[in-house]
Amino acid sequence: MINKIQFILLFFLFLFFCNKVSLFPIGHVNKKWGFIDKTGKVVIETKFYIIGFFFEGLAEVCIKR
After folding, report:
1. Residue 35 above 60 pLDDT?
2. What is the mean pLDDT of residues 4-22?
3. Which residue among 4, 34, 45, 60 is buried most deeply as judged by most CB within 10 Å?
4. Are 33 and 27 in contact, with CB atoms under 8 Å apart?
5. Strand boundaries in 1-65, DSSP class E
6. Where along the chain do its domains lie?
């Protein structure tokens, strides 16, 4: 059984390879999230506590707990 975080990462991975998203989440560095591009380059540093789907240039994020 996979947990919620694994499910979200698998879903992003699926969308990533279907070319539906331009950025992919980097997981839980110091309990924070960031994003990488298709080449693996960090584009948005790990500074968010909660992230939503990144689609068409926008993502919902939470910077405070």
Report:
1. yes
2. 69
3. 34
4. yes
5. 24-29, 32-36, 42-48, 50-55, 58-62
6. 4-62
